[in-house]
Amino acid sequence: MSEPMTIGELLTARGISRRSLLKYTAYLASTLALPPMASRAMAEALASTRRQSVIWLSFQECTGCIESLTRTMTPTLEDLIFDMISLDYQEALQAASGEAAEEALAKAIEDNKGKFVLVVDGSVSTRDGGVYSTAAGKTNLEVLKEVSAHAAAVLSVGTCAAFGGIPMAQPNPTGAVPVSDIVTHIPVVNIPGCPPIPEVMAGTVAYFVTFGKLPELDHLNRPKMYFGDSIHDRCYRRPFYDKGLFAKSFDDEGARNGWCLYEVGCKGPVTYNACATLKWNAGVSFPIQSGHGCLGCSEPNFWDQGGFYKPLSSWAMGNRALIGGAAAVGVAVGALSAAMARQQRNAAVATATPAKEKQP
Amino acid sequence: MHSESHAQQRTGMAQSVLHEIALALAQLAETGAPNAIDLRSLPMTEADRSELQEALGRGEVSATLDMAGKSDIWETRHAGVWWVRHSGSGDRIASETIEIAAIPDILMAHRDDIRAAAARLSAELAAAAPEPV
What we know:
The structure holds two protein chains of two kinds. Chain A is an alpha/beta fold. Helices cover 40% and strands 10% of the residues of chain A. Chain A has helices at 7-13, 18-31, 38-48, 64-70, 75-78, 81-84, 98-111, 140-148, 158-163, 179-182, 198-211, 224-227, 238-243, 253-256, 275-278, 312-315, 325-328, 330-352; strands at residues 52-58, 85-90, 117-121, 124-125, 134-135, 138-139, 153-157, 176-177, 188-191. Chain A has a five-stranded parallel sheet with strand order 2-1-3-7-9, sandwiched between helices. Chain A has a two-stranded antiparallel ribbon with strand order 4-8. Chain A has a two-stranded antiparallel sheet with strand order 5-6. In chain A, helix 1 (7-13) crosses helix 3, helix 2 crosses helix 3 and helix 4 (64-70) packs across helix 11 (198-211). Mean pLDDT of chain A is 84; it is low at 317-360. Chain B is an alpha+beta fold. Chain B has one domain: HupH hydrogenase expression protein, C-terminal domain (Ribosomal Protein S8, Chain: A, domain 1, 2-Layer Sandwich), CATH 3.30.1370. Helices cover 41% and strands 23% of the residues of chain B. The longest helix of chain B is centred in the first third of the chain and has 19 residues, at 13-31. Chain B is elongated. The model of chain B has no long low-confidence stretch (mean pLDDT 89). The A-B interface holds A 8, 12, 16-20, 22-24, 26-27, 29-30, 33, 35-37, 40, 47, 73-78, 80, 236-237, 240, 257-258, 282-283, 289 and B 1-3, 6, 34-38, 40-41, 65, 67-69, 71, 84, 86, 88-90, 92, 94-97, 99, 105-106, 110, 112-113, 116.
């Protein structure tokens, strides 16, 4: 339910000082790559707005996305996001169940018609009318159409909602599609990742609440501030790639020396996400730092791309001749396979979503 | 480990930041316009950060703020140049900036908090006042 109080009044009533809010916006400005001087204006803007109503629907998913968001390791600071929004419906977190839960959803929609943000995790089953995933006797497909009709915007959280994800993997028995195949009348922002980085989810929501508009998006409708650089661009192992120093297997000398994981299947060059900078588990590490290549989990079709441990060059356009060449001409091969993979990915998206109307 | 050796390398970034600070400080002196530099957005190694911290030194003022995790703020040996480090729980650094200002915004009490405090203090005194005889 929306509250008449502004966020500032709400914080004051809870004994949370404006310094806390200013600290939060300083942190946000940093993760959003905004100028640090913006934090004061952001704090003032947030204090004078009312909380943003959010309705969260879960479809064909594993609940890993909400786990990621709620298991942030700096709860005292990042939990402030939950003071900025009014999470009016979320099946995994809410106390209500059964008919009471369905009534809560109807009321949340009625109270915030045309104003709430709809967050979706999970892909949407469409085969046989979508009967393969239902809740309260309704298919996900029906619920998505009904609820999104009254939403201001949709945030597709996780690779399943954004691109179809694991449920869409061949042979796609449920006819799973991404949310953007169904919702075409309002903006859909994709926040992919399996799961997405918690700071990326919270930051995107906070941006919308603070500025009252959606952030700038890339060609796959992902916020540019988080998905603007490839993992490879920001990888601390990049200097080894440039020198042509590669691990050839997971226990060889190269692996022990921390060399580039390109030849053991790292998808960093074609994967756009913030793992290499924001990292995971309170900034402790990210897969490449832990010795494993990037799986490319924030990219469309990462699940059907021909093997996590095969070098990019082995499946980019199916040209096996490129394997092994990486060691000699690292940069050139990387740039080439990145370009080819991007082409291939765009083609794959076009095939997967024929009727899609891209939102601005 | 590679990551350790990388962390120990000086990349020259500290010197670049010092020049940026000098420009901003000259501007503050001339026009009073504050500025800030987000250290987290720069590809600085730990060695770069130590170099910058050593170069700026410590001045007369330091403050610890305890809300939503700890924050450490100190004025460097250059008046008007402040190091502002915000941590979340578990002392993870959430943001780190160099603020070039007379005083960092976050140290000042906000007018809404002052208003709320004034009302609360008056109410407390009114509640504690002895009954008129």
